[in-house]
Write a structure and sequence with these properties.
The complex is a heterotetramer, with one copy of chain A, two copies of chain B and one copy of chain D.
Chain A (H helix, E strand, L loop, with lengths): L15 H6 L4 H11 L5 H10 L2 H4 L4 H4 L9 E3 L6 E6 L2 E9 L1 H6 L1 H18 L3 E11 L7 H19 L3 E8 L8 E11 L14 E6 L9 H4 L20 H15 L4 E6 L4 H13 L2 E5 L12 H6 L5 E6 L4 H10 L3 E9 L3 E6 L2 E7 H4 L28 H9 L8 H4 L10 E3 L6 E4 L6 E7 L2 H6 L1 H18 L3 E10 L6 H20 L4 E7 L3 E2 L2 E2 L3 E10 L16 E5 L10 H7 L11 H16 L5 E4 L4 H13 L3 E3 L8 H6 L6 E5 L4 H10 L4 E7 L3 E4 L5 E2 H21 L1
Parallel strand pairs in A: 4-5, 9-12, 17-18, 24-27
Antiparallel strand pairs in A: 1-2, 2-3, 3-6, 4-6, 7-10, 7-11, 8-10, 9-11, 12-13, 14-15, 15-16, 16-21, 17-21, 19-20, 22-25, 22-26, 23-25, 24-26, 27-28
Helix pairs in contact in A: 7-8, 7-10, 8-10, 10-13, 18-19, 18-21
Chain B lengths: L1 E8 L6 H12 L6 E12 L5 H16 L5 E8 L2
Antiparallel strand pairs in B: 1-2, 1-3
Chain D lengths: L2 E5 L6 H12 L4 E4 L10 E4 L13 H4 L2 H11 L4 E4 L1 H9 L5 E3 L7 E9 L15 E8 L3 E3 L2 H9 L3 E6 L18 E5 L5 E4 L17 H11 L1
Parallel strand pairs in D: 1-2, 1-3, 3-4, 4-11
Antiparallel strand pairs in D: 5-8, 6-7, 6-9, 9-10, 10-11
Helix pairs in contact in D: 1-6
The chains are: A alpha+beta, B alpha+beta, D alpha/beta.
The structure holds adenosine-5'-diphosphate (ADP) and magnesium ion.
Magnesium ion (MG) binds next to helix 18 of chain A.
Amino acid sequence: MSEATQKVDAPDELPEELIAEHGLSPDEYARIRKELGRTPTLTELGIVSVMWSEHCSYKSSRIWLKTLPTDGPQVIQGPGENAGVVDLGDGDAAVFKMESHNHPSYIEPYQGAATGVGGIMRDVFTMGARPVANMNALRFGSPEHSKTRHLVSGVVSGIGDYGNCMGVPTIGGETNFDARYDGNILVNAMCVGLLKSDRIFKSAARGVGLPVVYVGSKTGRDGIHGATMASAEFDDASAEKRPTVQVGDPFTEKLLLEACLELMAEDVIIGIQDMGAAGLTSSSVEMADKGGVGIELDLDKVPCREEAMTAYEMMLSESQERMLMVLKPGAEPQAEAIFKKWELDFAVIGITTDTGRFVIKHQGAVEADLPLSALADGAPVYERPWVPKEPQVAPKEVPAADGPLSSLEALMGTSNLCSKRWIYEQYDHMVMADTVARPGGDAGVVRVHGTNKGVAVSCDVTPRYCAGDAFEGAKQAVAECWRNLTSVGADPLAITDCMNFGNPERPEIMGEFVAAVKGMGEACTALSFPVVSGNVSLYNETNGVAIPPTPAIGGVGLIPDVAKMAHLALAHDGDVLVVVGKTKGHLHQSRYQEWISGKLEGPPPSVDLDAERKAGDFVRGLIRDGTVTAVHDVSDGGLLVAIAEMALAGDRGVALDADIGDLPAHRFWFGEDQARYVVAVPSTGVEALIAAAAEADLPALTLGTVGGDSLSLGAEPPLPLATLRSTYEQWLPDYMDGGREQ
Amino acid sequence: MKARITITLKPGVLDPQGKAIEGALHALGFGGVDDVRQGKYIEVEIGESDPDRAKAEVERMCEELLANTVIENYSYELEAA
Amino acid sequence: MKARITITLKPGVLDPQGKAIEGALHALGFGGVDDVRQGKYIEVEIGESDPDRAKAEVERMCEELLANTVIENYSYELEAA
Amino acid sequence: MKAAVVVFPGSNCDRDAKTVLTQVTGKAPAMVWHGDAELPEADLIVLPGGFSYGDYLRSGAMAAHSPIMREVIARAKAGTPVLGICNGFQVLTETGLLPGVLMRNRSLRFICKDVRLKVERNDTIYTRSYEAGEIVTIPIAHKDGNYFADDETLARVEGEGLVAFRYVSESGGLDDDANPNGSQHNIAGLYNERGNVLGMMPHPERLAEPALGGTDGAKIFTSLLEALH
Ligand SMILES: Nc1ncnc2c1ncn2[C@@H]1O[C@H](COP(=O)(O)OP(=O)(O)O)[C@@H](O)[C@H]1O
Ligand SMILES: [Mg+2]
């Protein structure tokens, strides 16, 4: 079947509305016509539209993403495959990626979030890795918005049900509430897997005449146009797009995982690719394109769940839990036996060819015959116009509230600083019995099974900083992620990202994107923290109002020996707290500013990457040589919030007596200056630590002494931990219960 | 009045539960079984005796809470207490 | 034939789902709602056209798998294809 | 001690069970696929946690009808120790080897966290390494762990001392706050009359090593090793 002897039965002309509905611009359509020398069939139009959608083609972002640093001695696989791969030594490697499922989660939070988690895990096990840790980065609208509670509840249970059923621990994440996400929530899911570095599977279908095999679930009419939907701006009519929601089946995915890993242990797979966005179309195009071959599919062979599915529907279906593989010839029976054992569909649906064409046959007709070069590499690339944002002028001083401790108490009971326990307790974070740092700390850590090496994972971005200044904000996101990994004692290795932005056709949005990429690039270079995989989600806006630029960063680090891991919980009375790094008292765009003035304005804190590196390397050294008994980086809410989190985690109070110099107390305790860590050290070690810091040219200041059951500071009445804990722990459960009692 | 509400997945929507039950029934020897679909059944006592108002109330409940109308349909019967 | 099976909790058996739905309905302003019970609804196509044999088959399915007869009751209707 | 771990489609704590059994007994257990007709000779059969068949229909229901379960039931009736953890407990109640059912948690949410358990007795093969009445920490991770039985069954279970573990507060109190899922009488684990079958919602295999945050779970396995040796 390698020759397409039949002709395509193309229509004379396609209606303009149909072309527009497929999200193709008149120019893009003209390109297709020219490429084909004729009008495309409906199936061809569908195929081109999904391949050229923003989601699959990265047409607005590609030229910028290319500027990111992606190399390093630790990098085994950079961007371009289903996930990135970094070296963990001893032949072990970590595979990871983050992906967005924003639009589907807004429309149907449970299924949208669940299928997002399913999709990212497939990306990871497609590479031959067993997923060992999931993370999730969530941005919801304001708690007061009428939809927020429903969205939180659905998204969290969707993520939980899928990951829990798969038996992959969800070891952390982040959660923000901000009115700027009211109409466009963000659900970014990350997965980390482990494999042996000489057993990495890729997607290229190298070789002609090879069987193309479909495995997993059957194809239904799920999510047709999902990929184009993910690239379309919302409007009030988007409720109409509802039936495109996909339903996840984590049980089938668990079987698919086990079946794929079992087959991967044999030497029969040439290329493998999961069917994600744009399902069969994008998986087969990518495999053929990367392998430099043509591909021909016989859709009569595709396992279908519904009757009378057309070629168009099969090619665009986004049914979940499916994979495409190219096998060594003759290996089909061996592979089929494994998939049958796991009660999954298995079908040879096509063959690789030497024609360089993408040929789709169905019921005796040729439904599509397209040059592969036009679909993948030939997809449009735009250098969209962009304008830089006006620099923010610092508004007047942020006013001070009464006392730091009473401010702290109030702050710890706000939606953004409160405990996220209500969320992470719905996620099985211990399954696989290798979770050595559970959610609630700076980074989650899982052991490499059977060793004492640990893989640390953290997800970070501070959208309010990015809204103030996308360049500094993106730098900060990378730096905070690096810092969180450092705080547990890990060597940060590399990142994945999820670039969530508004409509790139608006120059100011494109300007934010460009600034964020530049900021990320600068930070990644300075911290030797390259980008190995990622995802872009654009058009996150409703009725012309965009989300704040949200470049979510997911980082992975290595702890050579988990016995030398650090944690934020204060561990011994009498230890002394020391802040490493300079405290300048930057309050613009801070949680304190938001709380005291109801506004977020001004420039975000700037990020001095040299200082970050110096402070981080220093603190990591303290952890490795066992000098410190607890470590926490300083981020949202500033120093006092960091100290409070350490106190609550260890259930030990602190008597604070820092010499704050000339800084007003509220700036000292709540400023969000970067490149800082709070460490706890036995009192006998304080002097040496301060001296070592001076040696390393790092500011270090003692803050107080661990002990008791409250936080005390100056003349203010001490704040009992029990009071603080209930404020901190109760906000989210009370909020979520509010729906019942209103 | 008592409302008996049945909530089913819209045609074409994947039903993992139904699929798994079908597999289990086959394994138990019910070979001829096909097209298994699982839904929900909910009984509600409503403090409304006027049939028209009861109807309106049950529909509002289904739309607002009981059914996920993105992927589910619902039907119901009313029965006087 | 098609069997429409309804599985409900026996009276006296705790129903956490029903209770939660009731609470949510109250919160949504459906004040008069009471006694909410959640059950399952399962549709099965059976390859059997004789009503008696179909009946026997459906009952066996329910007893063996679909219902946990320790806590659940079942009822069903048959409909010719 | 020779153990066998039954693997159902959707089991996901089978490897964790294997790890702890290997650590404690020094011998890797036999991993038995649910579809196998043969169950190897074993001193202990473990039904691991996870989501057999996705927990679709009712948790544990479809696994309970797996061909291998006929053999497990026969062995249990003949006195072989059978330990069901989490999903394994749900399978045991579905087969009728243990009374009652595990319903959806009172909160309707999945809950993963460490809980405090009271070890009701230490005169069983599963608990001889514990003190009677000892309060231990073991994690739970489930959505359907809300134990329910009718009054008569409950009275029998209590009367015969079949409760293995109860959810308690730090100080051992049986208050409602310490009950994570709404279980009757705070029941977290249950024996059969003969004492050879134990079903428990908490996951002892997850806290059996200091690096994971505790070792209270290991004593179930050391007890078995001692008893079955
Ligand atoms: N959606 C979530 N899922 C899982 N864990 C979460 C989620 N949101 C927050 N957490 C956890 O709560 C803790 C606090 O989060 P965060 O304040 O973002 O930490 P950091 O400031 O160190 O980045 C972390 O351990 C994080 O993993
Ligand atoms: Mg941190």
